[in-house]
Design goal:
Blueprint: H1 8-60, H2 68-81, E1 84-89, H3 103-111, H4 113-116, E2 124-130, E3 136-147, E4 150-161, H5 165-211, H6 225-261, E5 265-270, E6 275-278, H7 281-284, H8 297-301, H9 305-317, E7 321-326, E8 331-341, E9 344-357, H10 359-390
Antiparallel strand pairs: 1-4, 2-3, 3-4, 5-6, 5-9, 7-8, 8-9
Helix pairs in contact: 1-5
Length: about 400
């Protein structure tokens, strides 16, 4: 059974979609905050500037700087607008008698010396001071006014927060809408990717069965698009692979038949001298040899230590070994051929051993030699007699 929940492609796709949404939200929020902060900052600066200008017009209507109504007006408008208004002389001295200057007033007054410099040619002067980082600023504005008792300046001190509540609300709305969009998109993404992944998983399962030796399965070619083409190509490959395996199996069986009917024992060794392949003949070839000292699997198959010594030397020296093994009741001719590594001609990757039973041939040869020796011995006496008579 194929479970799409275990698909790494599905998980990666969902993570990719969510990551893209998160990145989009991050960039959108950053761009919105930067643009909104600049717009909100400029708008607040303009509002404060207009507010201070209107306050300056109203202050001129009070007539004199020592008017209690003027001080009361400045105090109330400061509380209502959140902007501190101060009436100063042209040299920068505070003259609002009803105001008690706190430390922040004195601090900003020191900061505002450049703003408070009186210039009759300029009606107003403006300066913005960054405090506590770039998100918090202080705006100092001075308007020149004329009262009945001389020329004066109206100073306003305003704190500007670039990150306004409106921007925060819009950011929250953007985040919530993105979260809703992400939750809405997950369902169709999972459905679509699952539909794409399922046929690929089916082909993967069939490929695993091929690895286990089941070559009868075929992929479903009814899918449309690239998946159907992949299934068709996979089935074509499977047909060719199955045919090749069948051909190789037949060739191997024929080769085994040929090797097994051979009267010679054939043994294949790996690079460590271990047996990898044998034919049936080798298993019965040493039936004449007495069974003794067969404590290892090697000696149980070939019961001669000199054979294994020559196998090790053949692999180590990459040289052919040809020798005879003879006993009272047996005789064998052994040939060991090294197998050269195709990637490194100087390296031996194994060896092939051929063992031929020459016991009967050896007996015939000994019989022939004995016969000739006996004939020679039997003919020697009469020949010696004839030789004496002839002499």
């Amino acid at each position: 059974m194929i479970r799409s929940s275990n698909s790494s492609l599905l998980r990666r796709t969902v993570v990719l979609v969510l990551g893209a949404l998160a990145a989009s939200v991050a960039f959108s929020t950053l761009a919105f905050v930067i643009a909104g902060r600049n717009a909100a900052f400029n708008e607040e600066v303009n509002n404060i500037f207009d507010q201070t200008g209107k306050a300056a017009v109203l202050v001129e209507e009070f007539g004199r700087s020592d008017s209690e109504q003027l001080s009361f007006f400045l105090e109330n408008i400061s509380e209502i607008t959140g902007t501190r208004f101060r009436l100063t002389k042209t040299n920068g001295d505070m003259i609002s008698p009803l105001f008690s200057l706190d430390e922040s007033d004195l601090y900003y007054t020191e900061k505002a010396k450049e703003v408070l410099v009186y210039d009759p040619e300029e009606k107003y002067s403006l300066k913005i001071i960054e405090e506590d980082g770039p998100m918090h600023n202080v705006m100092l504005t001075r308007f020149n006014i004329t009262l009945d008792d001389g020329d004066f300046c109206l100073l306003s001190i305003s704190e500007i927060d670039e990150m306004s509540d409106v921007i925060s609300q819009y950011v929250n709305i953007l985040l919530l809408s993105t979260l809703a969009a992400a939750l809405t998109m997950i369902v169709p993404v999972v459905l679509v990717v699952t539909r794409i992944v399922r046929p690929i998983q089916e082909i993967n399962e069939i490929a695993k069965d091929y690895g286990k030796g089941n070559y009868e399965l075929r992929a479903d070619e009814d899918y449309s698009g690239e998946v159907g083409e992949l299934a068709t190509s996979f089935n074509t490959m499977a047909d060719k692979l199955s045919k090749s395996i069948n051909d190789l199996t037949q060739e191997r069986n024929r080769l085994e038949d040929i090797v097994n009917v051979s009267t010679e024992g054939i043994v294949l060794f790996d690079e460590n001298g271990n047996i990898t392949v044998t034919n049936d003949t080798i298993k019965t070839l040493f039936s004449r040899v007495p069974k003794k000292n067969l404590f290892t699997e090697k000696l149980q198959l070939i019961p001669f230590d000199e054979v294994w010594t020559n196998v090790d030397e053949c692999i180590a020296e990459n040289e052919t070994k040809d020798f005879l093994i003879e006993g009272p009741d047996y005789a064998y001719h052994v040939t060991i051929l090294p197998k050269t590594d195709p990637d490194d001609p100087d390296k031996c990757s194994g060896a092939t051993g051929f063992v031929r039973d020459i016991t009967e041939e050896s007996k015939l040869e000994r019989t022939r030699k004995d016969y000739v020796a006996n004939i020679s011995h039997e003919l020697r006496t009469p020949l010696q007699t004839l030789r004496g008579l002839i002499e």
